[in-house]
Write a structure and sequence with these properties.
The complex is a heterodimer of chains A (about 325) and B (about 220). Chain A has about 325 residues and is an all-alpha fold. Chain A is built from eleven helices and no strands. The longest helix of chain A is centred in the C-terminal third of the chain and has 29 residues. Chain B has one domain: Glycerol-3-phosphate (1)-acyltransferase. The termini of chain B are far apart. Classes of the chains: A mainly alpha (about 325), B alpha/beta (about 220).
Chain lengths: ~325, ~220
C-alpha cells in the first residue's frame, strides 16, 4: 500500500487550516445569533466542516483511500450533472457508459498510468461515446447530446481526476510538502480566492465584469481577490511548495484568473439550463459542482504548471 | 397481518444495509416538504408511478425504525403470480397484494387487508394510476383510493410527487442508470364525503400541481 507523505509543514498547515475554519465558524455563529437573517454563512460553514474532515480522513491513510475518495466525488459530480441537464431518453445506455468510465479512469490514476489518464477521456471516450450513440440510432439532437456528454465527462471525471493525479508527483520534487503539500496548496489558494473575490465584491464592488452571466461579479472583487490571492500564495508557497517567491506570485495570479473563469463558466451553464444551484447535496452551498466550479479549472492548471517547471508528468 | 410481520428483521436489514444506502448515496434524493411526511401511522401515501424504484425511494424517506410499518399496495397478478415472488416481495418489501381485475366481492372484502393494516396503525403506499406509466405522464386515477378513504375517514392521505425514477429504471428498460430524484410532498387531506370520482380527481389535481411546481423549477 502506497503511503502518502505527511511532512511537518503539511501537518502545520492542516492545523492552521482548522484554526482558521474554527475562527470563521465562531464568527458565523455569533453573527447568526446577533442578526436574524445571516444564518446562511453558519449553514455554509457546517457543510465546510464536513468536507474538510472527510478530506483529512481520506488523505491520512494511503493513496488507495485518497484515490477512492476522489472517485466518489467524481461520481457524485457526474450524477449531479446528468440529473441537472435535460437528457434524451435514448441516451440512457450512453450515460451508463459514461458512468462506467469513472472506475477505469481512476484505475489509470491509481496505477500511475499517466499517459492513459491523459488520453482516456479526451481521445478514447471521444470515440466511444458517439460510437455507442450511433448504435442506439437516435439522430435528433445527436450533436448536442454528444457535446453535453463529453463536456460532462471532461468536467466531472477528467478534471476532478487531477485531484488524485497529484499523488503521482514524486515526493523528491517537493521535499517540504510532498505531493499532498501541492494539492493542499492549490485547494487553499483556490478556495480563499473564491472567498476574497466575494468579500471584495461585497464591500466595494461597483463595475460589473459579466453582467449577462453572473451579475454579482465585479472588477473590484476580481482585482481585490487576485491581489490578495497572489499575496497569500507568496506567503504559504515557501511552506508547502518548491516555488520561488516570484513563481508563487505568478501562480497566485493564474489561479485567481482561472478560478474566476471556472466559477462564471458554471454560472453560465446554470443560467443556460435555468437552475439556481446544480444540486442540493451541500446545505448552504448548493450542489457539489457549485463548490467545485473554480477548482475544476485551477487544479489541472496548477498540476501542469508544476509538471512543466519540473519536467515531469507528461510522459512518465 | 401475521404473515407480513413475522419476517420483520429480514426487511429491516434489507432496508438498513442495502436499499437505504443505495437510494441515498448511489442514486440521491432531493426532498421538498419532508416535514409533511407522517411520523407514524395510520396514513396513506398516494404517489405517481413510473418505475419500481418509486417504492424503494418512498420507503427510504422513512427512518429504519418505522420501516416495518410501511406497506406498498401491489398488484397481485404481477407481484404474486408465483409462490416464490409472493414470498420474496412479502418478506423483503412487505407488500399488501390487491386484485386488479374486477371481482364480484363486497368492497370490505376486497380492501380487507388494507383496512386491517390501517387499523393496526400501519402506513400504506398506493399508486392510484394502477400501473407504471411511461414518459413521466400522469395517467387517470382509479377510484380505489376514494373507497379506501371513505372506509377510513380518519386516516390522513398524503399526496406525493416523484420525478426521476422514469429515467433511472423506466418500464420499457431493464438497465438501471443513476440520476438524482426530486420528491415533492403535499399537505395531508382527509376524506370529505364527496363522491368517489370527485375525491379521486381532487387527489390527482394535488399531485398534478406538485408536478407543475417541478416543471416550473426545471424551466425557471
Amino acid at each position: 500500500m502506497e503511503q502518502i507523505l505527511l511532512t511537518n509543514n503539511v501537518k502545520l498547515c492542516i492545523i492552521i487550516l482548522y484554526i482558521v475554519l474554527f475562527l470563521i465558524t465562531l464568527y458565523a455563529y455569533i453573527m447568526s445569533k446577533v442578526k436574524e437573517n445571516s444564518s446562511n454563512l453558519f449553514t455554509r460553514m457546517k457543510s465546510f466542516w464536513i468536507i474538510v474532515i472527510l478530506f483529512t480522513i481520506a488523505f491520512m491513510f494511503n493513496k488507495l483511500t485518497a484515490v477512492f475518495f476522489i472517485m466518489l466525488i467524481s461520481y457524485l459530480a457526474l450524477k449531479e450533472f446528468f440529473s441537472m441537464i435535460p437528457t434524451r431518453r435514448s441516451d440512457r445506455r450512453v450515460l451508463l457508459w459514461a458512468y462506467l468510465s469513472i472506475p477505469i479512469q481512476f484505475y489509470f490514476i491509481y496505477t500511475n498510468w499517466i499517459v492513459m489518464f491523459y488520453l482516456f477521456i479526451p481521445l478514447y471516450l471521444f470515440i466511444l461515446i458517439p460510437l455507442r450513440m450511433v448504435m442506439v440510432g437516435d439522430t435528433e439532437g445527436f450533436l448536442k447530446s454528444c457535446g453535453i456528454i463529453h463536456w460532462a465527462l471532461m468536467t466531472c471525471v477528467y478534471t476532478i481526476g487531477y485531484f488524485a493525479v497529484y499523488f503521482s508527483i514524486p515526493n523528491e520534487i517537493n521535499p517540504q510538502g510532498g505531493a499532498l503539500g501541492l494539492l493542499l496548496f492549490i485547494l487553499i489558494i483556490t478556495i480563499s480566492n473564491d472567498f476574497m473575490q466575494y468579500v471584495f465584491g461585497k464591500s466595494m464592488g461597483k463595475n460589473k465584469i459579466t453582467p449577462n452571466v453572473s451579475p454579482n461579479k465585479t472588477w473590484e472583487g476580481f482585482i481585490g481577490g487576485a491581489i490578495s490571492t497572489a499575496v497569500l500564495s507568496m506567503l504559504i508557497a515557501p511552506i508547502l511548495t518548491p516555488l520561488s517567491i516570484i513563481q508563487a506570485g505568478l501562480v497566485g495570479l493564474i489561479i485567481a484568473i482561472a478560478g474566476f473563469f471556472g466559477d462564471i463558466t458554471m454560472s453560465a451553464i446554470k443560467r443556460d439550463i435555468g437552475v439556481k444551484d446544480t444540486g442540493a447535496l451541500l446545505p448552504g452551498h448548493g450542489g457539489i459542482l457549485d463548490r467545485l466550479d473554480s477548482l475544476i479549472f485551477t487544479v489541472p492548471l496548477f498540476f501542469h504548471y508544476i509538471a512543466y517547471t519540473n519536467n515531469i508528468g507528461i510522459l512518465h | 397481518m401475521c404473515n407480513i410481520n413475522k419476517n420483520n428483521f429480514i426487511k429491516f436489514f434489507f432496508f438498513l444495509f442495502i436499499v437505504k444506502p443505495f437510494i441515498l448515496w448511489a442514486l440521491g434524493i432531493n426532498v421538498r416538504g419532508m416535514e409533511k411526511l407522517p411520523k407514524n401511522g395510520p396514513a396513506i401515501i398516494v404517489a405517481n408511478h413510473n418505475s419500481h424504484i418509486d417504492t424503494l425511494i418512498i420507503m427510504s424517506l422513512f427512518p429504519c425504525s418505522t420501516i416495518l410499518n410501511i406497506h406498498p399496495i401491489a398488484a397481485e397478478d404481477y407481484f404474486c403470480n408465483t409462490k416464490f415472488k409472493e414470498f420474496l416481495f412479502k418478506t423483503l418489501i412487505g407488500i399488501i397484494p390487491i386484485k386488479r381485475k374486477v371481482v364480484r366481492l363486497p368492497k370490505r372484502e376486497i380492501f380487507k387487508e388494507i383496512n386491517t393494516a390501517l387499523e393496526n396503525n400501519e402506513i400504506i403506499i398506493l399508486y392510484p394510476e394502477g400501473t407504471r406509466g411511461e414518459d413521466n405522464k400522469l395517467n387517470d386515477f382509479k377510484t380505489g383510493i376514494a373507497h379506501i378513504a371513505a372506509m377510513n375517514p380518519n386516516v390522513p392521505i398524503i399526496p406525493l410527487y416523484i420525478n426521476g425514477p422514469d429515467k433511472i429504471l423506466p418500464k420499457i428498460d431493464a438497465i438501471l442508470v443513476p440520476f438524482i430524484s426530486d420528491i415533492y410532498i403535499a399537505d395531508s387531506i382527509y376524506y370529505d364525503n364527496s363522491a368517489t370520482k370527485i375525491f379521486t380527481e381532487k387527489i390527482r389535481n394535488i399531485i398534478e400541481d406538485l408536478m407543475l411546481t417541478h416543471k416550473r423549477k426545471e424551466t425557471l
